[in-house]
Amino acid sequence: MLADDALGRERELLTDPPDARYTAAFDAICADANQRLVVAELNGQVVGTLQLSFVPGLSHTGAWRGQIESVRIAAELRGAGAGQQMLEWAVAQCRERGCAVVQLTTDKSRADAHRFYEKLGFVPSHLGFKRKL
């Protein structure tokens, strides 16, 4: 699902077996108590994924943040509610952990995703910058 759209096809590698960097990342995520890698299943098939990170911070009086990344829903199920359920679960996890805010980023080109996140109460409050290394 990470390569399920044009943007993903540009930056992800589809190989069998998976590239070793994916395996190393998966192992690191699983070993970190502040990380959650989540899948949604339907009839035994993975139909959605997201990564939830809990990040301590010094701003906002030392508040923790929930960072949602890598949200993907199988193309044929978009609009059927799986994404909303996953995001609601992630927000609930952040509340349970005492996070002051939950945030996510999405590529500027993903207009449908922007509308989806806004529908769920997320607001486009910041401008982000990235630098590839």
Automatic annotation (TrEMBL):
UniProt key word Cytoplasm: no
Say if the entry is tagged with keyword Lipid biosynthesis: no
What are the EC numbers? 2.3.1.-
Superkingdom: Bacteria
The entry's keywords: Acyltransferase, Transferase
How is this protein named in the record? GNAT family N-acetyltransferase
GO molecular function ontology, one term from the record: acyltransferase activity, transferring groups other than amino-acyl groups
| Matching SUPFAM superfamilies | Acyl-CoA N-acyltransferases (Nat)
List, alphabetically, the Pfam families matched. Acetyltransf_1
Domain named N-acetyltransferase: residues: 1-133
Query: What InterPro entries does this protein's entry cite?
Result: Acyl_CoA_acyltransferase, Bact_Acetyltransf, GNAT_dom
